[in-house]
Design brief:
The complex is a heterodimer of chains A (201) and B (36).
Chain A: H1 2-11, H2 26-55, H3 69-94, H4 98-125, H5 134-165, H6 175-200
Helix pairs in contact in A: 2-5, 2-6, 3-4, 3-6, 4-5, 5-6
Chain B: H1 8-35
Classes of the chains: A mainly alpha (201), B mainly alpha (36).
Chain lengths: 201, 36
């Protein structure tokens, strides 16, 4: 009896299992809370935008200023196409197609980098700055916040791409591509809202 | 039910739906603004 208890004790390694009080899976709950906090963060900036446009009845953009709608539209197409290459990469992982996985991830990262480069170039040539007026503050705040998210996504993609080239990920185990993929699509969804409200409406 | 947090596949599908819905809304608003 004592020997059996000892054997059970010896089999256990590491800390005791965490107490699970929620019926929702921990990873899923974590991601859900993260996305909710992100929506609130972007929501604060959108509130400021709608406040000055609807309540304050301010011009958008400010009088005498212009936003490069066409260039930002091309940039939108670039970012949206990167979601398709991301999906292609993950399908590659699922089907054990290494070429699709590596090329998909690499293309996604390059498209994301192109998006950021065009955005920085846009900032340089806009002709107004965040401190000029409320419109400038909100414009740079929202696009900058989104740009920071693209940068984080690019960092995740870089890790995934390096791992893919090193032979990581299989049809069964590809969480390292799946999670950055979900994040990347979330960043793209946010851009659709940012572009539509700041540039089109 | 579609859950974009569950898998990349569902997140991608969600993105497509959002893109279509937003394009329709923006189109309607721009059209109404031009007409009214």
């Amino acid at each position: 009896m004592e020997a059996a208890a000892h054997a059970v004790h010896d089999d256990h390694h590491g800390p005791p299992a965490a107490n699970v009080s929620s019926r929702v899976e921990a990873q899923f709950l974590g991601m859900l809370l993260f996305i909710i906090s992100e929506i609130m963060l972007f929501g604060a900036f959108f509130t400021a935008y709608f406040f000055i446009r609807v309540v304050g009845e301010a011009d958008w953009p400010a009088r005498g200023e212009e936003l490069p709608v066409a260039i930002a539209g091309v940039n939108t197409a670039i970012l949206l196409s990167s979601s398709f290459t991301m999906h292609w990469a993950l399908e590659g992982a699922r089907n054990e197609n290494r070429r699709a996985l590596t090329m998909g991830l690499l293309t996604t990262a390059l498209l994301g980098l192109t998006f950021l480069t065009i955005q920085v170039n846009e900032y340089v040539h806009l002709g107004f700055s965040p401190q000029d007026n409320a419109q400038g503050t909100i414009f740079y705040g929202l696009t900058g916040l989104h740009g920071a998210h693209v940068f984080i996504g690019l960092s995740l993609l870089t890790f995934a791409t390096i791992r893919a080239f090193r032979g990581h990920f299989t049809a069964k185990e590809h969480r390292g591509v799946e999670v950055p993929g979900i994040y990347w699509h979330f960043v793209d969804v946010m851009w659709i809202f940012v572009y539509s409200t700041l540039y089109l409406l | 039910m579609l859950n974009p947090l569950r898998s990349e596949q569902e997140a991608f599908r969600f993105l497509i739906y959002v893109a279509i819905a937003v394009a329709v809304i923006v189109g309607v608003v721009l059209l109404l603004r031009a007409v009214l």
